[in-house]
Structures are given as C-alpha cells and as structure tokens.
Design brief:
Mean pLDDT: 97
Shape: globular
Low-confidence stretches: none
Strand content: over 45%
Number of strands: 12
Number of helices: 1
Largest sheet: 5 strands, antiparallel
Radius of gyration: 15 Å
Order of helices and strands: EEEEEEEEEEEEH
Bound molecules: dTDP-4-keto-6-deoxyglucose
Oligomer: single chain
Length: about 130
Amino acid sequence: MASFVQLPNVVDFRGDLTHIEAEKTIPFEIKRVYFIHGVPVGAERGGHAHKNLKQVIIAAAGSFTVSLENSEGREEVVMDSPDRGLYLHALTWREMSNFSPGTVCLVLASEYFSENDYIREYDVFKEMIRI
Ligand code: T46
C-alpha cells in the first residue's frame, strides 16, 4: 500500500547528486517545501492525517521509520535512502519515529500550509476512512 517515488541520482567520484523536477519526478504541483531536522533521540512526530494534502517525504540524511495507515491497512516503512521518496496520499495516518542523529527529512507538499487540513483525532480519521 505504501507508494514510492524513485528520485534520479547521478553518481561520480565526487559523490551523489539527487535531483527533483516539479511535476516530472513528483506526481503533483509542489506548492510548499519544508524539512525537519534536529530531532532529539526518541522523539516522535506526525500522529495525524490530512484531508486533501499529498506529500512526498525523503530521508535526505539519516533514517527514520514511518507507520502508515489508510483504508487499505497498515504498514511500516524505513526511510534511509536519499533517492527514495515516500508518497503520502490524503487520508493517510502517519507516525514518524526512530530518527537517527543528524536526520534531515525533506518534504514536498501539494498545498500551502493549512491547519484546517489536519485530522488530529484518530477516531475521527477511522470514521472518515470507513466511508
Ligand atoms: C507530515 C510530517 C512529515 C508550519 O507552520 N508550516 C508547515 O509547513 C508545517 C508542516 C508545519 N507548520 C507548523 C505547524 C505546527 O505548529 O509547525 C508546527 C509543527 O508541525 P506538525 O506538528 O504538523 O509537524 P510534524 O512533524 O508532526 O508533521 C509534519 C506534517 O504536518 C505532516 O503532514 O507528514 O511533517
């Protein structure tokens, strides 16, 4: 049920260069980019879903675990490769944990930030995916 986006990666003796082209590599128009970093050991993030937002999340550095749930079921994904994006569709509950020290989580989002788009109550989310 988790879907991934493979990011083109150019390797030479100087290292790797991973590139992203809006609407070519990413299956939606990118309206917002943010990144999560400086996560303390043991901290967890997420714990919500979104009504309409689509996102691709990338472990640009380090690694973390994403627990996903949607109408198809649950899955746990380890993100540890900078050239692999996890496509988070709307109505997907996500919890992020096991951040390694120095992790940078890069996120490409289909919409501008809106608090109204969040579903923060798990019971409400479960009700919404039953319909
Ligand atoms: C997701 C994971 C990967 C903003 O002001 N602008 C923004 O673009 C975002 C994403 C957040 N904020 C504010 C809202 C909160 O006051 O930053 C604070 C922390 O946001 P949030 O609790 O949503 O952060 P995470 O790490 O729990 O979740 C975020 C995304 O919301 C979520 O969709 O997939 O990053």
